Amino acid sequence: MSNGSGIARLEWTRTWRDPVMRVMLVLFAIAAGYAALTGARWAEQRQRAVGQALASADEIVTKRHDRFVETLAKGDKPNFDLIYVTASQFGAGLPNAPLAALSAGQAEGYAAAANVTPFGDPHAMFDAFATGLESPSVLAAGRFDLAFVIIVLLPLLLIAATYDFWSRDVENGSARFQLAQPVRPARLILTRSAVRGGALLGAAALIALGSLVAVGARDSAGLALFGLVVLAYGAFWIALTTLINLFVRASTTAALAAGTAWLSIVMLLPAASAAVADLAAPPPSAMAHTNALRSAGLDVRAANQAAARAAAAAESDRAYPATLWQRRGEIRQREARLDPLYRSHAEGLARHRALADGLRFLSPAVIAQDALDRLAGTDASRALAFQAQALAFAGDARRLAFDWMDRDRLMTLADHRQPLLRFGFAEPSRGRPLALDLLALALFTILSLTFAALRLRRGASKLL
Question: Residue 87 gets which letter from DSSP?
């Protein structure tokens, strides 16, 4: 054990001769494989639901086309919903990202599809797809997906491998013999930690990557980033257990310290961050928001009752009936009353999300979870981007309808052959948030290693 390579070979041999390590890796592989399968099944179900929503919109177009052809063949006049573009329906859906099987993330808290109608309330077009996806108990407890295995179980694997690699030797007296060899204490301890922890981390990362590939993941860039996040998160835990080993002299104390660190970082800090966000920037009440919208909507409807009755009895010399023109005016009034309510509610949620997003940097576990959610495309930012794009699409549908009304244009057979508008989701950039997450994980690792270096500088006597 006269040089670094000898230390590394010896530690490598000790690590892989330990039957407990092999058993733990097997259990980790079983957990990762099962989690990847459940994640893939969830992603498939969600994609199927979105596909059904979009297929429903296309099916309506097809059926209306068939009805239009049949009506013309009979020589009859087409009905209201066949000639007025205001009755058209369009679908908007959020497609799965290539690594959707990795994490359910926050996706189940947001609708992944929308039913768009020109005269409908754009903010209510997600409602039909926002409930009934899963039971509240599942949403509260979270899913057993691959992200859960990485965030919660991987640290336990690394802790089991490294929590007492040095404190145990101090306890049984072999550390004195090792420090008597012609090798610097820092090199001895850091090499042992890197080899022992790195061997398990590398194997776990390969198992996690293999599990994703086995369930169909083929995005090479995404898989590479996933591997990088796993290695960065695991490196932090190896550095932390190294620091613990330098400060304690008994393996039982090291186990308690490592367990406390895991409980604090994985469980307590995320819960505390969420509580702070709720207290400092409480999200607006959904019930109060719903009641305010209902009250404002009823006021607008009551104010337009007389105009609606008059329009129903009025004759129109234009292609579109007076009732639709009256409805169009009522929509403008409704938007003028309701848009400030929607905007205020959205601003309150945005403040809450911004604070929660900043507080995630308090815990490496939350940082890593955020990075995995972004790679899976199940983060809140992507869901909100879909909502914003769907609202813009609804605006396009309304402008199309209003333009046709202004020009007295009715729908023709050609208009029924395909959707007049087609929604396409534009992926938001994830490069900067992912870079920040990786940088934050690296900083936590560097901080732990810095404290370890300061401890090592105090001399070999302080390590016994």
Answer: G
